[in-house]
């Protein structure tokens, strides 16, 4: 089943066109990676899907419903959650309070407690640090917190914006292992990355974005093997 359908999407900032007639799909149960260099338009696409930026043209459907005009709050409530680039955890709030913020649209206390348990079992390090100010976590731990917070809303589709950015290699591997685990547990993932190698290794399918345009698509393995991708993104 098609979970997310982006059709002919364009995004402008004033006269600058950041996204140019982009179309792609994410099917239920997949990890789909969108890769591209700095400024290719990856974040703009993600922010448009989550309702933080409005498209200048094109449509976005989530679970069969148009969402490109819906407010961000409604989009989250419909089952889609974004982990922004740079994490953005709330400083001054504890790890636990940050996680609770992720469930603010959900009124079911019992379900929230169950989701918290699941997040802590997936990220034991967060449970150990649950009373610590989120701002004092390491970069990798903040990434885990941001992912845990997004999972607290029990999304059907998780949007991840460069989760490996700025992390040490050991954390990068851990984050990608966690993404695979999230998929196994039944959450669909749209992953935006500059780390093409890792992103395509775990992706069912991928798309390559260049200056706002989609130029290539295929399975993760096909893209990893393609000369174009190897030259441009994998250094060989
Ligand atoms: P990166 O990997 O560096 O985050 P990206 O692929 O996510 O890049 P975007 O952040 O979507 O790319 O940016 C695409 C283009 O749109 C860039 O040229 C950027 O300068 C421009 N842009 C992004 N946000 C704005 C904004 N709020 N106002 C004006 N231009 C913007």
Topology (SSEs and partners):
Elements: E1 2-13, E2 16-27, E3 31-35, H1 42-49, E4 57-62, E5 65-66, H2 72-77, E6 80-83, H3 95-101, H4 109-122, H5 124-128, H6 139-151, E7 157-161, H7 169-184, E8 188-193, H8 196-202, E9 205-210, E10 213-219, H9 220-225, H10 227-233
Parallel strand pairs: 3-8, 3-9, 6-7, 7-8
Antiparallel strand pairs: 1-2, 1-4, 4-5, 9-10
Residues 13, 16, 18, 36, 38-44, 194 line the site of adenosine-5'-triphosphate.
Short description:
With 236 residues, this protein is an alpha/beta fold.
How would you describe what is shown here?
This protein is 38% helix and 28% strand. The mean pLDDT is 93. It starts with a strand and ends with a helix. It has a domain at 2-90 and 159-233: 3-Layer(aba) Sandwich (Rossmann fold), CATH 3.40.50.300. The chain has helices spanning 42-49, 72-77, 95-101, 109-122, 124-128, 139-151, 169-184, 196-202, 220-225, 227-233, and strands at 2-13, 16-27, 31-35, 57-62, 65-66, 80-83, 157-161, 188-193, 205-210, 213-219. By secondary structure, it is an alpha/beta fold. The chain is built from ten helices and ten strands. The longest helix has 16 residues, at 169-184. The protein is globular, with a radius of gyration of 17 Å. The strands form two sheets. The protein has a six-stranded mixed beta sheet, sandwiched between helices. Strands 2-1-4-5 form a four-stranded antiparallel beta sheet, with helices on one face. Bound molecules: adenosine-5'-triphosphate. Adenosine-5'-triphosphate (ATP) binds next to strand 2 and helix 1.
């Amino acid at each position: 089943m098609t979970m997310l359908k982006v059709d002919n999407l364009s995004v402008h900032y004033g006269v600058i066109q950041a996204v140019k007639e982009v179309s792609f799909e994410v099917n239920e149960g997949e990890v789909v990676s969108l890769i591209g260099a700095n400024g290719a338009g990856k974040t703009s696409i993600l922010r448009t899907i989550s309702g933080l930026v409005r498209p200048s043209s094109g449509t976005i459907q989530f679970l069969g419903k148009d969402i490109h005009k819906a407010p961000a709050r409604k989009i989250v409530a419909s089952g889609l959650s974004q982990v922004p680039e740079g994490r953005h955890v709330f400083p001054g709030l504890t790890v636990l309070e940050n996680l609770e913020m992720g469930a603010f649209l959900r009124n079911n206390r019992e379900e929230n407690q169950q989701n918290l348990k699941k997040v802590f079992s997936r990220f034991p390090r967060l449970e150990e640090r649950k009373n610590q100010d989120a701002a004092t976590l390491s970069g990798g731990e903040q990434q885990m917190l941001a992912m845990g917070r997004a999972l607290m809303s029990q999304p059907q589709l998780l949007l991840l914006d460069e989760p490996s950015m700025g992390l040490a290699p050991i954390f990068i591997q851990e984050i990608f292992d966690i993404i695979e685990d999230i998929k196994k547990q039944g959450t669909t993932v749209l992953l935006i990355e500059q780390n093409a190698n890792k992103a395509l290794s775990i992706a069912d399918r991928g798309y390559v974005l260049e200056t706002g345009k989609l130029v290539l698509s295929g399975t993760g393995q096909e893209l990893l093997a393609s000369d174009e991708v190897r030259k441009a993104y994998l250094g060989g």
